[in-house]
Write a structure and sequence with these properties.
The complex is a heterodimer of chains A (about 475) and B (about 400). Chain A is an all-alpha fold. Chain A is built from 24 helices and no strands. The chains are: A mainly alpha (about 475), B alpha+beta (about 400). Chains A and B meet through α13 and α20 of A and β12, β13, α10, α11 and α12 of B.
C-alpha cells in the first residue's frame, strides 16, 4: 500500500484548488498582523471552520493515496473453495455454450437462446448449495439452521434494522424548490471532496448535474483526454474478434427490445467489447469474481478482466448512456461503477455488499416483517429470493424507468454501498403483497409480474417501511 | 358524470377511437349513409369534413354536434400552405413587434413551393452547391414520394422529363405541388441514429386562440446509423423517420416500433446537455407551435363545432435547435406497440374530456374557462386571457383617468 510522507501530502495539497482558497481565507483573516505565530493561525482556523476543511482535504488525499486493493481471499474459507468450484462450473458452461454456438452455425433452425455462461438464477442456485455444505460441516453442528430460509449461512451480517434505519431519511424527502435545486447545482460545481459529493448524492442530484457529480466523484473531471485515449486504444483492440464478442452481441438483443434503451444498443455493445479487453480492470476491481485457470486445453481462458461476461451484463451499461453523448465518458463511468459496486453482485463473498449478504438481509427482513407473505410464497413453491433475484442482481434496470435507476445509482455512490437494493427489494415485495397472497401457484405469480407495471424509486422506499 | 348516450361516428376503424367512445357509454350511429347527420360526435377524415362544410352540401351542424377538424385546416397542414402562411405572417409582423412578442421564425428550413417558386429555388441551389435538398409532395403522408436531391437532374422524377441546370420553369408530371427544403444534414443523433419528434397539440378555438399541449409523445427512430455519405443518400432507412417506411427495415422491432418516449428523450437531453439547454429546447418547441398556429389564425374558419388534434413533427439538430418539419391534421392512430396503444388511448380520452367535459357541449364562453390541465394536456396558450388582461387594464386606465 502506497503511503505519503508529509512532503508528499503538502505537494498534493498544493495541487488542490481548495488548499489555495483556504490559504487565501487565512491571509484575509490574519490581515496585516506583523508577527504571526502558530497559535494565531490555529485560533483563526478553528474559529472559521478552516481547520475542519483542512482535515477533510488531508483525509481525502490520504484516502485517494491508498491503492485500491482487490479482495481475493474471503475471511470464510469455504467461500474461497466455493469460488473455485464456481469458476470450474463456469468453465464447463463456457464449453457448453461454445458447442451450442458451433451447432447453431451448422444448423440455422436450432435457435437455442440460452447462449450465456451464467445468469442470476444459476448464481442463486449455486449459493443455495452452501447451506447443505455448512450443515454437513462439523464446525457448524451447533449452529441453528432455519430450514425455511433459502440461504441461512453463517457469515457475519449487519443487522437488518441498521440498514432500515440508515435509509429511513428517504421517507422524509420532499420535492425541492427551485432555489434549493440551484444551490445544489452550485455545490456540485464547486465541490471536490468525495465525502461532500456523497452527501449530495444521498439527498438529491439534479438531472443536469448528475454526470458532473459522478465524474468528480471518480476523479475523472479533468481527465477527459486520458479517458478518450484509453478508450480509443481499446476500440482498436476490438478489431480482433473474441469468442466473447458473440455472447455480448446475443446479450444485447434484450436491450435492443427495451423501449428506454434500444437507441443505445450499438454504444452498449461497443462499451462491453472494450470492457472485456481492458487489462486495468483486474487491478481496479474491488473484489475478485472468479478464481481459476482452465487447465485442459487453452482454447478459452478467462478474459483479461479476470471474470466471464454473464447474461444481462448489457443492463449495467444502459442507464449510463443517458448521462453523456461521449462514449468514452459512458465507458469510464460504467467501468468505475462495475469495479466499485456491481462486481459484488457477482462475487462469492461474505462482504457486506456481496450478493450473498444482500440476499440474506432481504430474507431476514421479509421473514420477520412480512412472515405471512414469506410463508405463503414458500408454500406455493415460489421462494422470496427467487422472486426478487433478477431485480436485485440487475438493480431494477428494466423494471424502473431510467430516472429512477439513476436515483438508485446516486444512493449507491451516496453510501458507497449496494444496501439500497435491499430496501427496494423489500419495498417491491410489499407493494405486490396483496396480489401475491392471492396467488395459488407459480403461474399466478408470473402473471402478476407480466402485466404492465410501473415501479418507482420513492414508491418502493415507502412500501419498504410499511408494515 | 359521463352518462349521456351520445351518438358517435368514425371514419377510422381504430381501436383507440372506438374503445374510447364505447367506454363512455356512447352509441354508434346506426345510419349507414356516409353523409348522414345522425351523430353527436364524429371522428372524420379531412375529406368528409370538407364535404360537410361545403356550402353546396346544405349541411348545417347543430349545437349537439362536434367534429375533429376545422373546415380549412389545410392552411396549416398542407406543407405548401403552411410555408405560404408562415412566410406571409412573418412579412406582416413588424420586426420590432415580433421580437418583443418572442416570435421566432427561424425554425423553418429554407423552402420553395414547386412549381411556382422553381426559379427562386434554382438560384439558391446554385448559390449552395454542397447543399442537400429534400423534396416532398405537398399533400401526401407517410413519407410517400419523398426523396433527397443533390443534382437538379434528379427532378426528372417529378417532372417526368429531363431537367437541366439552365431551366427556369418546371412543369410537373402530376397536378400536385411539391415543397423543396434545405435538408437538415446535422440532425441530433442518439446512438448514432436520426430521429424526429411527434408531439400532439389540441386547438379548441382559433378566435381567440386556445392551445393545449400533450405531455406524451415519442421520437421516431431510423433503424440505420446516420451518415451523410452520398452513397447512402437514397437509403430511406437512414434518412426518413416515418414508421411507415422504417417498418420495412430488417432491424425493425415489433416490441418498440422504433418509438422512443418523449419523457426518455427529455431526460436524455437534460442529463447529457444540462438543464438550461433542455429548457431552451422546450421553449423553442413551444414557440414553434404557437407561431405556426398564430400564422393561420386569421385564415382558419373558426367554428364552435370544431376542434383539431395536430401531430407536430419536429426535428432537432445537433445544436438542439428544433425545426418544424410538418403539421399533421390526422396524426396516425394506428398502434404498433402496447406502450403506443396506451399513449393514444389516453390521448383521445383526454381530448374528449376537454372538448366534451362531462359529455356537455360547451358554448364559446364555457370553452374559455380557466382550467389549465386535463389529463396529459396542459394549456400552452390561451389568448382569451390576454384579451381579458387587456380589457382589465383598459378598465383600470379608464378608472384612473376618471
Amino acid at each position: 500500500m502506497q503511503q505519503f510522507d508529509n512532503q508528499e501530502i503538502l505537494m498534493k495539497l498544493k495541487s488542490s484548488k481548495q488548499f489555495w482558497d483556504i490559504k487565501k481565507k487565512l491571509k484575509q483573516g490574519l490581515g496585516d498582523q506583523q508577527k504571526i505565530g502558530v497559535n494565531d493561525i490555529q485560533k483563526l482556523a478553528q474559529s472559521c471552520e478552516i481547520e475542519d476543511q483542512l482535515i477533510k482535504l488531508i483525509s481525502h488525499i490520504l484516502k485517494k493515496s491508498k491503492k485500491r486493493e482487490t479482495l481475493k481471499e474471503d475471511q470464510i474459507e469455504f467461500l474461497n473453495t466455493s469460488k473455485i468450484k464456481w469458476t470450474e462450473l463456469l468453465f464447463k458452461n463456457l464449453d457448453i455454450v461454445h458447442q451450442k454456438t458451433k451447432n447453431q452455425e451448422e444448423d440455422d433452425t436450432n435457435t437455442d437462446s440460452k447462449l450465456y455462461i451464467y445468469d442470476e438464477k444459476n448464481l442463486l442456485a449455486f449459493l443455495q448449495t452452501f447451506k447443505q455444505q455448512q450443515q454437513s460441516n462439523a464446525l457448524y453442528q451447533n449452529v441453528q439452521f432455519q430450514s425455511n430460509k433459502l440461504l441461512n449461512i453463517n457469515i457475519p451480517l449487519k443487522s437488518s434494522q441498521s440498514i432500515l434505519d440508515k435509509y429511513q431519511y428517504l421517507l422524509l424527502q420532499e420535492e425541492l424548490q427551485d432555489d434549493k435545486i440551484n444551490k445544489i447545482r452550485k455545490q456540485i460545481e464547486n465541490e471536490h471532496l468525495d465525502i461532500e459529493l456523497e452527501k449530495i448524492a444521498q439527498t438529491f442530484v439534479p438531472n443536469g448535474e448528475r454526470c458532473l457529480l459522478y465524474l468528480k466523484y471518480f476523479e475523472f473531471d479533468h481527465q477527459e483526454t486520458v479517458l478518450q485515449q484509453n478508450f480509443a486504444k481499446l476500440q482498436k483492440e476490438c478489431l480482433n474478434q473474441l469468442f466473447y464478442d458473440e455472447l455480448l452481441e446475443i446479450d444485447g438483443h434484450e436491450i435492443s427490445e427495451d423501449t428506454f434503451y434500444f437507441v443505445f444498443q450499438e454504444q452498449i455493445l461497443t462499451c462491453l467489447k472494450c470492457f472485456i479487453r481492458d487489462r486495468t480492470i483486474k487491478e481496479n476491481i474491488r473484489i475478485q469474481l472468479q478464481n481459476g485457470v482452465k487447465k485442459e486445453h487453452a482454447e478459452f481462458q478467462l478474459p483479461v478482466t479476470g471474470f466471464f461476461p454473464f447474461k444481462n451484463i448489457s443492463k449495467y451499461v444502459a442507464p449510463l448512456c443517458y448521462l453523456s453523448t461521449k462514449i468514452h465518458i459512458i465507458y469510464a463511468l460504467f467501468k468505475e461503477f462495475f469495479c466499485r459496486y456491481f462486481c459484488f453482485l457477482h462475487a462469492i463473498s461474505s462482504e457486506n455488499n456481496s450478493i450473498l449478504s444482500l440476499c440474506m438481509q432481504i430474507e431476514e427482513i421479509v421473514s420477520t416483517r412480512s412472515p405471512k407473505l414469506f410463508h405463503h410464497l414458500k408454500v406455493i413453491g415460489c421462494d422470496t429470493l427467487k422472486l426478487i433475484i433478477h431485480q436485485l442482481v440487475y438493480c431494477f434496470i428494466g423494471d424502473m424507468d431510467p430516472p429512477h435507476i439513476l436515483t438508485i445509482y446516486d444512493q449507491i455512490i451516496g453510501h458507497d454501498s449496494l444496501e439500497i437494493l435491499v430496501i427496494l427489494c423489500v419495498g417491491f415485495l410489499n407493494k405486490y403483497k396483496p396480489k401475491l397472497l392471492l396467488a395459488k401457484n407459480q403461474e399466478n405469480v408470473q402473471q402478476i409480474f407480466s402485466e404492465l407495471r410501473e415501479d418507482r424509486f420513492q414508491e418502493l422506499v415507502q412500501f419498504a417501511y410499511k408494515q | 358524470m359521463q352518462n349521456k348516450k351520445l351518438k358517435w361516428k368514425s371514419d377510422f376503424e381504430k381501436s383507440v377511437i372506438i374503445e374510447n367512445f364505447v367506454n363512455r357509454g356512447w352509441i354508434k350511429s346506426q345510419d349507414k349513409e356516409e353523409d348522414s347527420s345522425d351523430w353527436n360526435v364524429y371522428w372524420a377524415t379531412v375529406w368528409n369534413v370538407r364535404n360537410i362544410f361545403n356550402p353546396k352540401s346544405g349541411f348545417r351542424l347543430n349545437d349537439q354536434q362536434i367534429i375533429n377538424h376545422f373546415p380549412n385546416h389545410y392552411e396549416l397542414t398542407r406543407k405548401d400552405c403552411m410555408v405560404k402562411n408562415l412566410k406571409r405572417f412573418k412579412r406582416e409582423q413588424d420586426k420590432e413587434t415580433y421580437e418583443q412578442q418572442g416570435w421566432n421564425f427561424d425554425f423553418l428550413p429554407t423552402t420553395y413551393v414547386f412549381p411556382g417558386e422553381y426559379s427562386l429555388f434554382v438560384e439558391e441551389f446554385h448559390r449552395c452547391p454542397n447543399q442537400t435538398w429534400i423534396v416532398k409532395p405537398a399533400a401526401r403522408s407517410q413519407g410517400k414520394g419523398i426523396f433527397l436531391l443533390r443534382k437538379i437532374q434528379q427532378l426528372k422524377k417529378i417532372a417526368g422529363t429531363t431537367v437541366t441546370n439552365n431551366m427556369t420553369q418546371l412543369n410537373l408530371a402530376s397536378k400536385e405541388n411539391y415543397v423543396v427544403s434545405k435538408y437538415i444534414d446535422n440532425p441530433l443523433l442518439i446512438g448514432g441514429k436520426k430521429f424526429d419528434l411527434r408531439m400532439y397539440v389540441l386547438v379548441t378555438n382559433y378566435k381567440p386562440l386556445k392551445v393545449w399541449i400533450y405531455n406524451k409523445g415519442f421520437g421516431r427512430f431510423c433503424n440505420e446509423q446516420y451518415t451523410t455519405d452520398v452513397a447512402e443518400i437514397e437509403n430511406m432507412f437512414v434518412h426518413l423517420t416515418n414508421v411507415a417506411i422504417q417498418q420495412y427495415s430488417d432491424k425493425y422491432s415489433q416490441k418498440h416500433g422504433g418509438k422512443y418516449s418523449i419523457d426518455a428523450l427529455k431526460f436524455y437531453v437534460e442529463s447529457a446537455y444540462g438543464t438550461e439547454a433542455f429548457q431552451k429546447m422546450m421553449d423553442d418547441i413551444h414557440s414553434i407551435m404557437l407561431t405556426s398556429l398564430k400564422s393561420v389564425q386569421a385564415v382558419i374558419q373558426n367554428d364552435k363545432h370544431c376542434f383539431e388534434m395536430y401531430g407536430y413533427d419536429i426535428l432537432l439538430d445537433a445544436n438542439l435547435k428544433p425545426w418544424l418539419i410538418e403539421i399533421n391534421a390526422s396524426p396516425s392512430l394506428t398502434t404498433t406497440t402496447p406502450v403506443d396503444k396506451n399513449l393514444k388511448l389516453n390521448l383521445i380520452n383526454d381530448v374528449y374530456n376537454i372538448v366534451l367535459p362531462n359529455d356537455d357541449f360547451p358554448d364559446n364562453e364555457q370553452k374559455q374557462q380557466q382550467i389549465t390541465k386535463v389529463g396529459g394536456f396542459s394549456v400552452l396558450y390561451d389568448e382569451s386571457l390576454d384579451l381579458m388582461n387587456r380589457k382589465a387594464q383598459k378598465r383600470q386606465s379608464v378608472k384612473i383617468w376618471k
